[in-house]
Amino acid sequence: MNIGVIGTGYVGLVQGVILAEFGMNIVCMDISKDKIDMLNRGELPIFEPGLKELLDKNVAANRLRFTTNIKDTINSDVIFIAVGTPPKDDGSANVKYVLDTAKNIATHMDKYKVIVNKSTVPVGTGRQVTGIVQQTLDACGKETDFDVVSNPEFLREDKAVRDCLTPDRIIIGTTSEKARKIMQRVYSVLYLNKTPFLFTNLETAEMIKYASNAFLAVKISFINEMALLAEKTGADIQQIAQAMGMDGRISPKFLHAGPGFGGSCFPKDTRAIVDTARQHGEEMMVIDAAIRANEKQKQKMIHKIRFTLSESGDLSDMTIGILGLSFKPDTDDIRDAPSLDIIGGLVDAGAHIRAYCPEGIEAAKGHLVHIGHVITYAANEYQAAEGADALVLVTEWNQFRGLDLQRIKQNMRGRFFFDLRNVFAGRPELVAEFNYFGVGR
Ligand code: UDX
To answer: Which residue's alpha carbon is nearest to atom 16 within ligand 1?
Structure first.
């Protein structure tokens, strides 16, 4: 089957590569010439474990190619729209690029197509896409038939390949029997492998994505709030989470207390569903509270570090080492990363920052350019600790778990260690050697 994928961001690129791996003929299109040139050179515009190998393999097998010309996708039976839906100032998702793409497809198409929306879009967008495609076809005097399907993506950055190769479920939102059968063929590998499929209508499929992300965000904010209380009462959040997770109805996943959720999905999608609800005269009180709790969590981290350090001196004389900038490990993505707020809050208090992240430095530099004069970037974790009065572990990269703590201690000027992911919480020998602060303990 010939498949076009429009948009080579995280979702589109991984989707294109995986569908090629499933034996489909894929053409990935993006308006960014830079990205397509990179892909044609065999380079990835994103850091994602395991993706490069599959890209090379499927390009070599002639099942995967890249283009900047949308017309190259028009021979496809199925076209995936996987373009960005960035948040507007009011928190609502901007679906302009999705609608523009739909119009573009309609302008060029001349035979039946399944137009599949992979981008995370507010409920109702699939209907809008249907309307725009029909209007454009009418305006061009074409009687071509088509169906629109919502097929949300649940991949996590850093585990994107695995999530797409072995997803928990595939959601197909359409009332067209013909489109349904075609989508079953697109995912025939997964269908035969007994991956659960849920067939539903457009609106339900669109809302499933937001409901899932919002629920996980609520779970994180919940445990973070518990962590704040645990700190005040002498309880231990890790044991609380462990015990809660033993209840099969709760599950232990997404119960790790930390500096707050970040990334390209949770912050954006929670705001977007609150906005969609508002437009429909409903208030998403639980999700709204999770968003506010997340903002508070980041501020609490800043406050704890500032308050603790100010008791032993003036922050403007201090250097703080930061370990981890990306919003989570194994990605170079720093979108809405808690590190950005935390660094901002410490710089506001006068501190100098020495930051290290295995993959996130280049992206962070762009976001922190306004405070570039007080930040230096280290080549490794030990350099980040050099002369530092305090060390703040913001992102739990695996390589930090094996830190040579004696070397860190020798490199530092002070002894403060703020472990915002509780990586070392179970290591009493570390707690004894540093002025150690975890989260929720
Ligand atoms: C998320 C969803 O998991 C995925 O299904 C969806 O398609 C896109 O959004 P992603 O943003 O890649 O994926 O990251 P995820 O691993 O879910 O983590 C999101 C944020 O929550 C990170 O900042 C992470 O540090 C934080 N988090 C996660 C916690 O603070 N505690 C946890 O227990 C889990």
So the answer is: 156
Q: Model confidence over 85-122: pLDDT tens digits? A: 988 888 788 999 999 999 999 999 999 999 999 999 99
Domain range summary for the chain, segments of one domain joined by +: 2-200, 215-437
Of 388, 387, 352, 356, nearest to 371 by C-alpha is 352
Lining residues, ligand 1, CB within 6 Å: 153-157, 213, 216, 220, 254-256, 258, 261-263, 265-266, 327-328
Which architecture characterizes domain 2-200 according to CATH? 3-Layer(aba) Sandwich (3.40)
**Among 82-86, 198-202, 239-243, 341-345, the least confident range:** 82-86
pLDDT category, 263, cuts 50, 70, 90? very high
The Cβ of residue 304 has, within 10 Å, a number of other Cβ atoms equal to 16
Given a cut of 90, whether residue 6 has pLDDT beyond it is yes
Q: Tell me whether residue 265 is one of the annotated catalytic residues.
A: yes
Residue 76 CA, ligand 1 centroid: distance in Å: 33
Q: Which class for 94: exposed (0-12), middle (13-18), buried (19 or more C-beta within 10 A)?
A: middle
State which ligand 1 atom lies nearest to the alpha carbon of 155.
Answer: 7
Counting from 1 in the atom list of ligand 1, the atom nearest the Cα of 260 is 30
Q: What is the CATH number of domain 215-437?
A: 3.40.50.720
